[in-house]
Design brief:
This protein is an alpha/beta fold. The chain contains 7 helices and 10 strands. The longest helix has 22 residues.
Amino acid sequence: MNVLITGANGFLGKGMVEQFEKYDDYKLRLMDIIPSESVHEVYVGDVSIYEQCYDALDGIDGIIIGHMAPRGENDINYSTPEMAFDVNVKGTANLFHAAVQRGIKKIVVISSEATLGAYKKSDQVHTLRARPLAGYYGLSKGCQELIAEHFTGEFDDFQIACLRVGYILDGDNNLDKYGRDIVKRNLGNTDRRDIGEVARLSLESDQLRFEIFHVMGTQESLERWDVQYTCDFLNWKPEYNFSWLPRPEAQ
């Protein structure tokens, strides 16, 4: 399968690429606005420009939409809608529209648990529609899910998965994308390679039409965030459960 990963040069993107490299059946094309060197094909492009999205999808079988507008210092890029919507929303719509033109049916959208900010923590199951409260970040991620659902309704043969991921870490060293050492276990801790594996399994599945999967690694998330549904549907088990980190109340 030929797979395009957007945002491939970011913290999450690199982890997803690492996971796909464990398998021999994939040819990766890595799209990012930042140039990089890789053994895989690299496409330097801007998802907010439709023509570049269309070009990047030439010969592709499946897409992982993993790009995200950078937060910038003090979250400056999410203080106004401009960059958040240009990258997260317009970029996602561009890729879906280009996928229609290219005849691509399998798409995975990396969403966020921030889309459920308006719900009680005890009620967050995969069947809930997005109701974000996290400013322009949560709003833009919720719009990504809405775009995915819209295209699924418009075209009968799409197979779409939206992954609502938790707090992304590298479980080998407990570091987050900012290089900070995480010393306490949070309900939403999620290793970036586990996200890549759920994305891979979603692309491989012929059983989904439009599915929302909560993706977190901790034992606590299996019930409280309905991660067990993801495990059952995709026959998946998190490789990193962060059980080696103490829970905050234990300190």
